[in-house]
Prior knowledge:
Layout: H1 2-22, H2 51-66, H3 70-74, E1 77-86, E2 92-97, H4 99-106, H5 115-122, E3 128-135, E4 138-149, E5 152-165, E6 168-176, H6 180-193, E7 209-211
Parallel strand pairs: 1-6, 2-7
Antiparallel strand pairs: 1-2, 3-4, 4-5, 5-6
Amino acid sequence: MKKLALVGCLVSAMAFAADKAAAPMAPPAGDKAMGGMMEGYTPRKVTKEDKKGIEAAGEAMHKAMIAGNMDEAMKGYDFPIFMMTDDKDGVVYTNMADAATWKKMMAPMMDPANKAMMDAMAKMPKPKMDMFFLTDNMAVVTAKGQMPMGKEKMEMRNSMLMIKKGDVWMVKGEMEGGWGDAAKKMMDQMKSEMKPAEMKPTAGTGGQTKGMK
């Protein structure tokens, strides 16, 4: 009888341990040692790297841009979007662009007069893309490819911040070097076309980073 009771206790203990092991770990409800810094934080795991979804979204936007279809290209962006570039002196510029601002900035590039350049872009090799998934719904995508500059081919590097809305991946941020001087010229032109009531001062961020507005 004692042996039977002992076996019963061991089985119960093993079953309890199994239940404890199977139970998912609850997120920390406020670490007192860290002053409650972790309260409200939910650990996230990447369960699916949807590389095909991001590739499809990028391909659709690329085709729309090359075709000069502004409205179709804009469907791939979740406005407002974060934009970053630098100028010839290495000064970095950042901006949050709404749909109207982005459209004005991209209009010159998608002008029918630049069709020859767009045709040349279409012939460039497909950029090499790397994707880093932060969660199933957030990813950083870097690309390295070539861009025609007259008879020369220049290396082009850029990065996009992507988010998944429903089943569709969309751009939430763009970073590409070298457009700072063109952006300054374009923003000055846009400001000159604005009415005084539409112009709003933007506080500088200091250092080597400046607002594009």
